């Protein structure tokens, strides 16, 4: 699975980094970023982070 964050939608709530800190982090401006270059879909908390995002900026694609 491949995970990504749409930077145009992200509002910097930080829910992704709080929910799955092994996969997500925040940049210097507070917006969400994927730590592992999009390959963090194996973490069981990624689906919860997708649900927790208030603006649905996280995409999880099953390859």
From TrEMBL:
The keyword Iron applies. It comes from Streptomyces mobaraensis. GO terms for molecular function: 3 iron, 4 sulfur cluster binding; electron transfer activity; iron ion binding. Keywords: 3Fe-4S, Electron transport, Iron, Iron-sulfur, Metal-binding, Transport. SUPFAM superfamilies: 4Fe-4S ferredoxins (SSF54862). Ferredoxins are iron-sulfur proteins that transfer electrons in a wide variety of metabolic reactions. The keyword Nuclease does not apply. This is Ferredoxin. Residues 1-29 form the 4Fe-4S ferredoxin-type domain. It holds the Pfam family Fer4_15. Its cofactor is [3Fe-4S] cluster. The lineage of its organism: Bacteria, Bacillati, Actinomycetota, Actinomycetes, Kitasatosporales. InterPro entries: 3Fe4S_ferredoxin (IPR001080), 4Fe4S_Fe-S-bd (IPR017896), Fe-S_cluster_ET (IPR051269). Coiled coil: none annotated.
């Amino acid at each position: 699975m491949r995970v990504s964050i749409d930077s145009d939608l992200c509002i910097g709530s930080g829910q992704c980094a709080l929910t799955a800190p092994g996969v997500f982090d925040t940049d210097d401006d507070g917006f969400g970023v994927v730590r592992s270059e999009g390959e963090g879909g194996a973490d069981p908390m990624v689906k919860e982070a997708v649900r927790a995002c208030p603006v649905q900026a996280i995409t999880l694609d099953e390859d």
